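ok trying this again, last paste got cut off
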Amino acid sequence: MNIRNPLRPLSIFCGSVLLAGAVLFCGNPAWSAGGTAVVTANAVNVRSGPGTDYAVVAQAKQGEKMNILEQDSDWYSVALNSGGRGWVAGWLLDVQQSQPAAATTGQVAVLNGNYINIRSGPGTNHGVVAQGNSGERYQVLDKSGDWVRIQLTTGTGWVSGWLGKLEGGQAPTPQAPAGQPPATTPVSGSKVATVSGSVVNIRSGPGTTNPVVGSVVQGNNLTVLGQEGDWYQVSLPTGGTGWIAGWLVTVKDTPGQTGGSTQPA
């Protein structure tokens, strides 16, 4: 006669939960894949996936810095300073690329305690992205006050200076990237881009990974010089040229028909 074990369904359920948790943990690395995202809008939605159809899980404020974990098209997965992770639209960020360890001058941080928290930014208000132990050595990338940014096995993190000592040469000097001018498609006819965002970044090239070279405000009219994908090269009111995201402007012929707009993230 078969005797049913009343605890077996419970054990199977618990095992399934533990397995799912292990897969979720392994599939979401706790450190940055490189680069820092700085919020440029007043309040930005952080979503559960790379798109506006995903649920809002948190909000980030203007000026907040978050380590980038990965990228999917124009969306970035970031480590939240409150813990956890989420996705933010790239056009609402100033993306600053991490300097690789090979570009440093050889300064090393040696930890002097166990279970030292490595954080996403220079301060205890930033989330923990990893931990280090006594004697571990990390190459130094940058410094902010009493905090140093270090190179992890994958990505970067920040550790307080009083939890370690620095060895080696002087602090690294950032080096400007050797970028190439983008291939621009000239725009036929005369077009004007009217800024629809409150404050919009102007970049040196067509993409959020290019440095910010200026900004414009809502209502500014900019002469369009060229186009690459969803980005427009424009003449700036202060002189010179730069690139602006197409979803933050309305482009019209002179005279002509008004272009479309996009849904905010």
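PB: full thing came through this time. The radius of gyration is 23 Å.
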